[in-house]
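Human: Note token order:
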Amino acid sequence: MQAHPQRLAWITLIGGLTMFCLVCSGTFMFARWLVFDSPTELNVTLHVGRGTVTLAEPDTTDAIAIRTDASVGDDDRISTDEEAQGLLDISDPYSDQSLATITLHHNSSLTLDSASRPRFNVSDNAYTIRIKELSGRLDVWVRPELDRDISLDLAGPMGTVHITTGGSYLLDQNPTYFQVMVRAGSATLISPEGNPQHITANLQGTIFTGTQTVMVDAAPTDLLPDSTFDLAKESDWPVEWTCTFLESRAFPNAPRGEWDFTSIDGRSVTHIQRLEPNPGQGKTVCLQNLLENDTGLNVTGYETLRLRVVMQIHYQQLSGCGDAGSECPVMLHIVYTDTDGNPRDWYHGFYADYTPGLGKTRCSSCLEDHVRINSDIWYTYDVDLFNVLVGDWRPAAVTVFEVYADGHQYEILLDEVTLLATRSVIDDNPRRLD
């Protein structure tokens, strides 16, 4: 028989009550974490814009060659060779809304550390994306006006770029320096020792090898007004860009091409299409006239003249660029005078579909072959024109810049047409751009 039954009863009661409180508290804390703090993965998809991109999963030695689309998971590493270009599309699995894209130019790589969002919409936590081990050149686009905050970190051996606002960012990690150019939005460049520097639009921040200081200076000058079509989208009348349809003499009454400035997935774009059946040849042109006092836009004072065009080909009827090699669904044309005052024309085209033996992939007046890219994927053409137009061909003044769709039936999107000029370069041996 127990000597103190009342004491035992109290101990049992208090112990049970304590256990009940602990269970209730734990259940409450778990429920709160589940509802407000538990994460779920974002969708990360690799699209191949050109060539073959390699994907290496963690704890494996063999990389997978990707030519179309592939799902990307945590700690997967993406790499491009000297010809390839890939695009990571990061989207919300609940809304299928694209949140951000990361373009890997040639000879570039990165590892996806993590990409997550709150499990439930009642949470105010941000979209969180972590990229590590980046190398080479990346273009980062973050959708503006998201319905929740976003936190995107891109870390390389010489620093980290932290982004929390929508915009456009160009990153370059190479053995000499780590640089972020802010085209739109704002970013923070953080040195390995944790020294932060805020970078706003039209500025660039650079960390050089062996230093911890973030140098900030003006980004290259954009010579084409409204290069991202933001003004044109908001206006009922042409702003900077003038578009028209040029019919072929062989098809004088052919259906006209159409164009409109609109927004797709948060991007301001130019949509050009000509899809009427049996239309014959015709081209739809958008151009900027850069004449200044009848002499053109003087570019002799610049060290680099970087042309960037972000495009997407939805459809083309012809194989390659047609019988003459001049009917590409995307064609670039620059009218300029060289350093001797001679008039010059530079053409360069892009196509997605090609049947061997049908159509050409270079025009008679072109200096190089046209570029084949994959359809329905954002592709970025990025080149220093001073590395292409050399010697007697070097531009002195640009008079007209055209981008057009040519052929019979076609449909394309243009997200950016930019001509970036800088008066100095970081090193004496600039690397080839795409």
